[in-house]
Amino acid sequence: MPILARARRALRSFHRRALPTRPARTPRVALAALATLLALPAAPTAARAQLGVAVACTPGIPGCSQLRFTLSSTPDLALDALTLQLVTPGWTFTPIVAGGTVGSYAAEDALGPFGGTTTIGAVGRTAAIDFLETAAPFTIAPGSSGFLDLEVAGTGNAAGLSVDFIATTADGTRIVGNTIPEPGTVVLLSTGMLALALVGRRRARRTSHDAA
Fold it and tell me: What class does CATH assign to 3-201?
């Protein structure tokens, strides 16, 4: 097993034994520093950072009053900040106090579970997160993912929810994108498009036959 993989496994093992609950800021800083040191032996040519964000209702939360944003990346990534914007009409982020601009989130990354606050835009469509308020960036390890749970209010099917995001990495790189549809949504869309294509083809054949 490569040295880097063994070191990362040791880090995760330490975290499970020593930090069974939400880590305080000081251990999180130490873990972030250790993760940075472990990443130093990586390949000298850095790959372009790519961030994927998928959204769905948080498991076990009734009425989809909370959304889970699952973050994955290629290669590993550390995020200092993230802004989410709900594009689909009828959905807004819920503040801690009605009419306020401060929300909250629960999260889990490669360093373990943690939480913090969000800054919600005037109309409730955006939520900005500064991960450095927890004293460490949001860290995504190679081949894994992390997630954020945010309180929302909305109507309709969350499976087709569209969310724009802007992320800033620890090295200052800015990543802009849109959420990835759930696999089930992609299948439904593909099936619907195929059905429409078949209907159109049959109508074209019928029209051509009648004209003849």
Answer: mainly beta
